[in-house]
Amino acid sequence: QKRVLSGVQPTGNLHIGNYLGAIRNWVETQADYENFFCVVDLHAITVPHDPKSLASNTRDIAALYIACGIDPRISTIFVQSHVSAHAELTWLLNCITPLNWLERMIQFKEKAIKQGENVGVGLLDYPVLMAADILLYQADLVPVGEDQKQHLELTRDIAGRFNDQFQSVLKVPEPLIRKEGARVMSLTDGTKKMSKSDPSEMSRIHLLDRPDEIAKKIKKCKTDAIRELAFDDSERPEANNLLGLYCIFANKTKEEVQAEATTWRGWGDFKNVLTDAAIAHLQPIQTKYDEVVKESGYLDRILKEGREKASATAFKTLNAVKDAMGYLPPL
Ligand code: TYM
């Protein structure tokens, strides 16, 4: 059986980009694979963070995985920092990764500009930690959004380099990037990706936004002056993005939506149907989330079991890596 690994950072609220680009796809294929889904809390401290909210954010993300349909009986859900092998393999991989591979990373360059003088070493090292996450589990497939493609290529390069320099210990993984939802754009600027770090809350719909907030955000979102709505016009990124979201939320094909669009009298009508579809799609996730956080001890149990299962696999790989590098085993 093929193995899948993926993760989300516990920074801020999850938005529909994280859901449509990543988590929804994990859910869809979870029965076909052996799955590891991680809350990547070590990644969350690569930019300044608030110690008061790290633990609760971590729990929230794990609860949302379950709320979105990850079934803990099929998939292993765990917290990255609970399995120390992640940090340890990162160090070993650091020592075989050329610095210029990391300096080339687009996300590093974008985030580094925002941090100015305060760019930490951790931000540069972020993709090596991500490679360690994936390689520890010998994952075949890594389902992510489009923005993670470059990090996946780096992971493949690091695995290849390790295997060449030492022994063939690490599985070289494939990215799994679904076309629909791979790049959800901001509601306030259709040329920018929807992002947790955008200062404006109006730019994104959170998975836990209440119906009135969803309605407000869609009502105010950026549009253009053309009445007819159509896909694939590069001059009209907002139309393309919102129609794409409607396809997914309403579970309709592009052709169906294009036909339906002829019945709308402009953006106003479309925004109403989009709002209804988004609310209807997110509602069961929100109900399930409330249940998961209410059931005392449930999430703790899942994360404890997850840590045990993840550790068994991760330390097996870590030991093989150390062996290949020639380390003296603990006596
Ligand atoms: P994070 O938390 O930034 O993003 C989590 C997932 O959401 C996807 N995503 C999007 N997809 C579509 N449209 C968007 N606007 C959008 N914004 C975010 C991301 O592609 C990602 O799949 N580096 C990873 C976390 C990570 C990881 C890993 C992933 C750490 N280790 C190992 C896979 C395997 C990240 O971007 O997290």
Automatic annotation (TrEMBL):
InterPro entries: aa-tRNA-synth_I_CS, aa-tRNA-synth_Ic, Rossmann-like_a/b/a_fold, Trp-tRNA-ligase, Trp-tRNA-ligase_bac-type, Trp-tRNA_synthetase. The keyword Chaperone does not apply. Its EC number is 6.1.1.2. L-tryptophan binds at D133. ATP binds at Q9, P10, T11, G17, N18, G145, E146, D147, V184, K193, M194, S195, K196, S197. A motif ('HIGH' region) lies at residues 10-18. It is found in: Cytoplasm. Homodimer. Belongs to the class-I aminoacyl-tRNA synthetase family. This is Tryptophan--tRNA ligase. It comes from Pseudanabaena mucicola FACHB-723. The gene is trpS.
